[in-house]
# Entry
Amino acid sequence: MKTESENTNMKTNNQSDMLDSPQYEKATKKKYAVRSVICLAAGGIAGFLFAFGSAHLKTLLTVFTRYSHIYFPVLQIYLFPWFLLVFTLICTIINEKLLKKSKLQIASWDGENDDHINIADTCLNKVLLISGIESVGTQIIFAVITYHLMKNLQDKSSTNVVMIFIAIAIYLASMVTIVLQQKHVIQLIKKYSPEKRGSIYDKHFQDVWFATCDEGERHIIYKACYKTYQFMNRVFSICLAAATIIGMFVSIGILCAIIIGFLWLIMTCCYTRECIRLENGR
# Structure
């Protein structure tokens, strides 16, 4: 009698043969042709509609641009620093609750039943997710605040200067909070995985931490990275197409499309270069 592993291998081989068959290639070619025709038709219809309503759209966007130049700098200085503070506080409070829950689960772990550790691990992963969102979100909001930094300083308004210093203080506090929370996560993980090594303050922390991961953890990291690469290819493609279409109606310049295309090119080149390096065993 055939074992379960032999049956699994036979199924895998049969699926591989089907994927290499001429029938499979013919079927995928038809689907590709249908998708291409649908995309071309959708693009043509969308282009016609945009062109038909371009006059009204340009008028609307012109009015929006005029008012944004008037009111948006005021919002940047007087509203966004407090928005940054609220955003930081919300992320910090959520993370502290998750850290507290994971700490209690680790403290109640008997060394055998992994249910507590699985709950703690999930909470810690959520903390890292929220910390990542907070890090990127904080830097985006701070960039928006400082967009008219020099102009506001030249106005010599004491209120503007105070608000800018408040925004800088909130930004620095947010960055410090993120680092401390990530340090707390690492310390908690080391309690139930003592083989883990690394310090959050070390610039080579990620390499050191990755070296202490087992084969299963590395497989998860590899798979997550590949899925991210696939997803970001779609994101860059959509963003570049959107920037191109918007540039037909609004004077956003070519810098937006160049930056998106440049980042897409960097990601593609880095991924391909790393694949070549690993394939050659270097």
In short: Residues 4-12 have pLDDT under 50 and may be disordered. The first helix runs from residue 4 to 19.
